[in-house]
Write a structure and sequence with these properties.
By secondary structure, this protein is of the alpha/beta class. It is built from eleven helices and twelve strands. The strands form three sheets. The protein has a five-stranded mixed beta sheet. A five-stranded mixed beta sheet has the order 10-9-8-11-12, sandwiched between helices. Strand 5 (73-74) and strand 6 (81-83) form a beta hairpin. It is globular.
């Protein structure tokens, strides 16, 4: 039986999975990696592939194909990294060439948000919904659009990028080079920045105690911890995050009327802090909804932060099928 491997390269972690044609057959692990030369990165990816195959007790000859993704613009044909604000050390390097040479199998590659879209189509909400949007909410804010059960693929290796929408007057600098993007205002690092600014402004908050009154030490988990203790400042920060994400959700409904909007990624397990505000804002500001022309709900993914790596497996399957070597499920 063929085995497919998926690799999701995040900003700090590698998520790796291997499985067959059914999502439930996948084995999975997550580990940190060290940034270095492209060759060092290739070596860490090789080790991850070997380890996941060993974990699944799968002989290497049964490996059919590999899917790999990361938060960057990547050439879907050559595997070269075109641009990514956090991956300058790999710019121009092919993610696929070395893997294809080492393992002798086809390798599919794409941006992580589109891979996560495939993950939801294959193993998540896509099983019951053919038209939805996806928001990857973690250290960055990625995006995906799924229409008729297929993730949208933009020209020139591009993809949906509504994480860089501007929905407020805040002008915080974004890693893309612009200012005021949602990516700079609602992600994990942004939540920490909201907390830092509150501490620096002398706000009366548990956050000050959690960081020992050192603004530079504030982290996003501290904000959630403070919110759990009923801290008004932390709750206001998360309320602001929910409001901004709700405006984004409203824009998505106006754009292509998804049935659902799914939050995935590292912060998805914290989504209960913002979902009510997101949905209330979306419904209050969207005439298509309050006039009864369409319906939409923002939900948290049941896949957590595995959507991307499961999607990478599905990409690998598609690559194998397009090569004429397999049979569709």
């Amino acid at each position: 039986m063929e085995t497919y491997v998926g690799i999701d390269i995040g900003k700090t972690n590698l998520r790796v999975a291997a499985g067959g044609l059914a999502p439930g057959s996948a084995v999975y692990f997550k580990r940190t990696y060290e940034r270095g030369s492209p060759e060092q990165m290739d070596h860490q990816v090789y080790q991850a592939v070997d380890d996941i195959l060993a974990k699944g007790e799968t002989p290497k000859p049964s490996l059919a194909s590999i899917g790999i993704c990361m938060p960057a613009v990547v050439s879907r044909t050559s595997g070269h990294i075109v641009w990514g604000p956090d991956f300058d050390f790999l710019r121009g390097h092919s993610l696929t060439k070395a893997l294809e040479e080492r393992y002798g199998v086809p390798v599919a590659v794409d941006v992580d948000s589109r891979a996560a879209s495939w993950g939801e189509v294959w193993a998540g909400i896509g099983r019951t919904c053919g038209r939805f949007a996806l928001v990857t909410w973690g250290t960055g804010l990625g995006a995906g659009m799924i229409v008729d059960g297929k993730p949208y693929e933009g020209p020139n290796n591009l993809f949906a990028e509504f994480g860089h929408s501007v929905v407020s007057d805040d002008d915080w600098p974004c890693s893309c080079g612009a200012a005021g993007c949602l990516n700079a205002l609602v992600t994990g690092p942004a939540i920490a920045e909201h907390g830092r600014r509150a501490v620096m402004a002398g706000r009366d908050s548990i956050i000050k105690d959690l960081c020992d009154n050192r603004p530079e030490a504030v982290t996003s988990p501290m904000i959630f911890t403070a919110a759990e203790r009923g801290d008004a400042v932390a709750l206001a920060i998360l309320g602001r995050i929910g409001l901004l994400l709700g405006r984004l959700a409203s824009n998505l409904v106006l754009t292509f009327q998804p049935e659902k909007i799914v939050l995935v990624g590292g912060l998805a397990e914290r989504a209960h802090w913002v979902l009510r505000t997101i949905n209330e804002t979306m419904r209050k500001q969207n005439w298509l909804i309050f006039k009864g022309q369409t319906e939409c709900e923002v939900v948290a993914s049941a896949l957590g932060d595995t959507a991307g790596v499961l999607g990478a497996i599905r990409m690998a399957q598609e690559k194998w099928l397009r090569a004429g070597r397999g049979h569709s499920s």
